[in-house]
Design brief:
The complex is a heterodimer of chains A (406) and B (172).
Chain A lengths: L1 H15 L10 H16 L3 H21 L1 H17 L1 H35 L3 E14 L2 E2 L2 E6 L12 E4 L2 E9 L4 E5 L6 E7 L3 E7 L4 E5 L12 E6 L11 E6 H4 L6 E4 L8 E9 L6 H85 L17 H8 L7
Antiparallel strand pairs in A: 1-3, 1-13, 2-3, 3-6, 4-5, 4-13, 5-6, 7-8, 7-10, 8-9, 9-12, 10-11, 11-12
Helix pairs in contact in A: 5-7
Chain B lengths: L7 H8 L1 H12 L15 H12 L6 H14 L6 H19 L5 H26 L6 H30 L5
Helix pairs in contact in B: 2-3, 2-4, 3-5, 3-7, 4-5, 5-6, 6-7
The chains are: A alpha+beta (406), B mainly alpha (172).
């Protein structure tokens, strides 16, 4: 047994202690060095921190350059996928646009009311120090969901600042260097965000899962409102890091009744981010002082104006409907009258015909009467040269009560 | 296949390929997340370090591996020194295997690689979770280990091809 143990020890010793042909450092020495680094780093030793900062400045820029070919392939792949889904996306967007347009006016009013109410309850809503940054490295490793921005302490980026894509929350700044900073995404397993669920205003904590989804925690005893199509997830503002009401994602209908795992679908795809907005939220010091009251007044006026505009639109829409109804009635009446005119014209023509016939009959009767009286004065015989019965000359002669003497 | 032996500059460049690959892999991380495959990830650095420490120990210096580990820690925002420790342990395992092997066999190397990455990843998980209080998805970690193990044999063939057919360098 002893020789085999000796062999093992010799092999281990040779592997860890003996320097190879072209090795400048001993393996064991470097392992000890790593352990020292690790230990001192966990105690926040200053020299290690400076070394880390120095390496970060070099590595982040180098990583950006080294990632260029892979990013090129990745972007082309995504473009190709987008191209394939173009028609489907177009249809979907068209439908969404239609839907959103219809909601727009009401949303403006609600937003204004929201701002006013937030001022009244002394909430965080003032944004300051808004910085736009480019995503330098986007390495979504299975162990860490984060990316590096090209702005650092030089550009006033501070720890804990919120990172947004448009109006949607992306994550928060967890590391600030001189020229770069690291953003921890909402999907990271270590990200914990206080959220509010609407409808119902239920408070919860959302955690990342390491995938493209989030999961709700600490709402075990509360049943979510069922018979709802979807539940929207916003920041609750608790903790003071983010303002309340920043959209995060939604819980689909199928997930609402699932009491064990409530999966949150994020509104944005974190792998598609190129530019983001980094900002911090500060609290308004005295929200009910004179200038703020003025602001509230102006907001009230704006809300009143919007409401008035809405009322006017309602009235105009009502008038339009009434006009439409009147027009339809008039058209119907017009058609009826046209029909009546046609009927009357027909009756008139019939009456005219009857009158003409009647006049003809009257003339005939008069002729016959005169014929009885004066027929003998006009009728042709062997003894005179008058007119033959039935001829127009005979008729004229009868009507003239005999032949006129020149 | 023409061997690169004539041009000394080209030969010099090709001899540094493992180091260049190692630094690219730690700076770039070769993730394929955009393909949308859940749980698919592998650690190329582990494969590269193990293979070259085992077969061509002169190609990768321990000092450079140590620096690559520091870079990896910075890129992945892990405590400084942990990747260096893991990489150097892999080197140690590979050196031990090299010392005890009389007749090299790819399958034995492959099995030993599984043992190596299981040990170092267990150590990494233990340090990160229990000592440094990091939260890590265990399934991702396990899947990463499995895929790294499975892909070792493919990369081993590729590296063999590169070293023997293109450069014409014999194994240790």
């Amino acid at each position: 047994m002893a020789p085999s143990r000796d062999d093992f020890i010799i092999a281990i010793r040779s592997a860890f202690l003996k320097k190879g042909n072209q090795q400048r450092f001993s393996l064991l020495g470097l392992i000890f060095f790593s352990i020292i680094f690790l230990t001192l780093g966990s105690f926040n030793f200053k020299a290690i921190d400076y070394l880390k900062i120095g390496i970060k400045e070099i590595v982040y820029r180098s990583s950006f350059i080294v990632s260029t070919p892979e990013n090129f392939i990745k972007n082309n792949f995504l473009k190709f996928s987008d191209h394939l889904n173009h028609y489907k996306d177009y249809k979907k967007l068209k439908y969404e646009l239609k839907d959103l347009k219809s909601k727009d006016l009401s949303k403006t009013i609600i937003n204004l009311e929201n701002v006013k109410l937030k001022k009244l309850i002394d909430d965080y809503f003032i944004t300051s120090n808004e910085i736009f940054a480019k995503v330098l490295i986007d390495k979504q490793s299975p162990f860490l969901r984060s990316f590096i921005l090209n702005k650092g302490s030089k550009n006033n980026i501070k720890l804990g600042m919120a990172v947004l894509d448009g109006i949607h929350l992306v994550g928060k700044v967890v590391e600030v260097n001189y020229l770069t900073s690291r953003v921890l995404l909402l999907s990271d397993i270590n990200a914990k965000i206080p959220v509010s669920l609407q409808p119902g205003d239920i408070q919860a904590i959302m955690s990342g899962t390491g995938k493209e989804k989030g999961i709700l925690q600490y709402i075990k005893n509360i049943n979510l409102i069922k018979n709802t199509k979807e539940i929207l997830v916003y920041t609750s503002g608790a903790g003071g890091l983010f303002k309340s009401g920043i959209p995060i994602g939604k819980i689909k209908e199928a997930q609402i009744s699932n009491n064990n795992e409530r999966i949150v679908d994020f509104f944005i795809d974190f792998s598609q981010l190129k530019y983001v907005k980094v900002l911090s939220f500060s609290k308004e010091k005295s929200p009910l002082q004179e200038p703020n009251e003025d602001e509230i007044k102006s907001l009230n006026i704006q809300i009143a104006e919007m409401n008035a505009a809405k009322e006017t639109i309602k009235v105009l829409l009502g008038e339009k409907n009434i006009s439409k109804e009147i027009r339809i009635k008039i058209e119907e009446e017009n058609n009826l009258l046209k029909n009546k005119i046609i009927t009357l014209q027909k009756t008139m023509s019939l009456a005219k015909k009857t009158i003409t016939k009647h006049e003809d009959q009257k003339k005939e009767i008069k002729f016959l009467e005169l014929n009885l009286l004066y027929g003998h004065k006009c009728r042709k015989s062997n003894f005179n040269r008058l007119y033959k019965v039935g001829t127009p000359e005979y008729r004229t002669c009868v009507l003239n009560k005999g032949q006129k003497k020149n | 296949m023409t061997r690169i032996t004539e041009n000394s500059i080209t030969k010099y460049f090709y001899s540094y390929t493992p180091i260049i690959l190692l630094f690219i892999s730690v700076l770039n991380e070769f993730d394929f997340n955009y393909l949308g495959m859940d749980y698919f990830s592998f650690n190329f650095s582990y494969i590269l370090i193990f293979y070259y420490s085992l077969k061509k120990s002169q190609s990768l210096g321990y000092g450079l591996i140590f620096i690559a580990g520091l870079f990896n820690d910075v890129v992945l925002s892990m405590p400084l020194g942990i990747s260096s420790l893991i990489y150097l342990l892999i080197c140690g395992f590979a050196a031990y295997l090299r010392n005890i092997t009389l007749r090299p066999s790819l399958i034995k190397d492959w099995i030993f690689f599984l043992i190596t990455i299981s040990v170092v990843n267990s150590l990494l998980y233990t340090i990160l979770t229990f000592i440094l209080s990091f939260k890590i998805d265990y399934f991702y970690f396990a899947a990463n280990t499995i895929f790294t193990f499975l892909l070792y044999i493919i990369f081993s063939y590729l590296f063999d091809f590169y070293e023997n057919k293109i450069i014409g360098r014999a194994n240790d």
